[in-house]
Amino acid sequence: MNFALTAEDDRAHVEMAPSGLHNGVPLALKRVPVEDLDVWRRIAKDVTHPAAKAHFYDLLFKKGGPRALNDAVEAVHAYMEVAKVDHYEVQVGEEEERQFKWAAHNRNMAMGRALSLRHVVAKDSASAALVEEVQGLALRCINRILLDPSPHIGDLLMLVRLLTRGRRTLAPQQSEALKVAIEQALHKHQDRDHVIDDLVAQLILLEPSRADELNRVRVQARLTIAESQPHASVKMIHLERAATLARNHQFRDLHDEAIKQMQRISPEDLGFQTFSSEAPLQAEVLAAEIQRVSEGADWRDSLTSWLQTGSPSGNAESNREGAEALAQVSLVSQLGMPSIVYGRDGLPRWTASTDDERRQHELARHEMFAVNFNGLVLAEGLDAIGKKYATPNVEDLTLLLSHDGAGDVALAGMFARALLRYWSGDFEGALMTAALRVETGARHLAVALDEAAYVTSRQTAPAVYLGIAPLIDLLEKHGLDEDWKRFLLTYFVSPEGRSLRHDLAHGFGPDDDKPRIEAALSLRALGLFVNAAWQPGKDTAPATPVVGLHSTGLVEAAYLLFRHAFGGVPVTTLVRHEARSLLRIARNWRRG
After folding, report:
1. For 313-354, where are the alpha helices, taking DSSP H only?
2. Rounded to whole angstroms, how far apart are CA atoms 550 and 546?
3. Displacement of CA 365 from its chain's centroid (Å)
4. What is the mean pLDDT of the chain?
5. Partner residues linked to 178 by β-bridges
6. Which is it for strands 339-342 and 348-352: parallel, antiparallel or unpaired?
7. How confident is the model at residue 278 (pLDDT cuts 50, 70, 90)?
8. Burial of 104 (0-12, 13-18, 19+ CB in 10 A)
9. DSSP state for residue 506 in the 8-state scheme
10. Contact criterion met (CB below 8 Å) for 490 and 498
11. Where is 557: in which H helix or E strand?
12. Model pTM?
């Protein structure tokens, strides 16, 4: 028979609870009249069922007052009675009693409440024996849980935590018994890393000198769990966790073992699949975008047009709104599932576990859609310039890019040589020389703006320089557009994005199917800093967006194409497009 209290009209009364031992305090407890408390006390004294007795004495203790300590003692006694027995009897007639099995969870919860009242009871010196008795019974409950085939993990961890929290009141033999019980629990639950972590944390509180040994147990548990996994992707997750934990605790041998096992898993083993979808895009609009980025009377004008395009990732605010909208309907986001980004080496590079990290990941994915499209436009634009005009020499390019020497001549020369590699068809060479010098361009501009762009005392940390991310933070103070900031971070350094700069610096080449596009994007990023150096006295980067907004409409596309077409070639294309559009509208109208 279980009891709970409810409040109505600021008065408390007793009613039957449908299930479980309810230890909650009624909202109106503080306002319960004295006469009602007297009724509760009489019930607590006269009722024979230990669960009811425990509940009422617990309520009286929570109410407080001069008798609170005594009420806590009585509650502990009653809770212990509940924890001791596995059944209870209910009288169903004048002479008939029926026996009901007491749920193990309810018994463990009663034991937990008795333990949580231990610190109150300990204030009474006369109750020292009771405190020891409570702790001894709790240890027996833990041993009973360990022998039960059912895991009862929540109950086990609750009792272990409560005993460990009050470890100063444990007798020496009880402390040793608790350590033994935790060791047994570690063995029983060796395939549950989260349980291992919790148990190890409690054991370290009891034996701080064993911290290193016990943390090795946590790492080893993850390695063991990984070994038992049939699926490579699940195995990889556990191995990564083992490697991270080993690194944090400086267990080099276990860290290396985890990494070696990760490296043995091939991308084919992971079973990655490519999912693709198509979005309609009029060929005329794409052609107009390409024409826009390469427009000019000669190669100088055309390259200037190309260098005045906006951030390839598009408008930062629009991307955030779009990513947020996608997150609202994403199953992964809704379920709170982690997302793992794998690097070019086939190993996990970054894991989005929290809501904020999942939003970051969704934003980076959203931005990369725009980057990939605009990378194609930029590459086609460079190709168009290279085909239309004779290739200039490096000196003429450097003069143009440095504004006849008024800008950064060294940076302009770097860009010129990379661009000539691109036009010669050496896309990988152009990519390597442009991408790795984006950081150079950011540093040159930061120094020109009188910012501290170097790290001192490199004797103790050789080859340490400010990277792209901190350099961008410096440039942002001088008005670097947020659209460009997002592109530079997402494409070159962010682990949730492309992270191109890090891949190239560590020997991982470009995507096999698009080195031309990645070279064009890297040239555009380097061109941002070359272009900024054109304007002495100005410390802001060029305004964004032309490319990236995809705002070119059909009429504007037609205008651009007509202006540059020969022999009226686009006319038939536009007529065909309009005819197809009218036919599609007619079919939809007929179906409707």
Report:
1. 316-329, 331-335
2. 8
3. 14
4. 82
5. none
6. antiparallel
7. confident
8. middle
9. T
10. yes
11. helix 554-564
12. 0.69
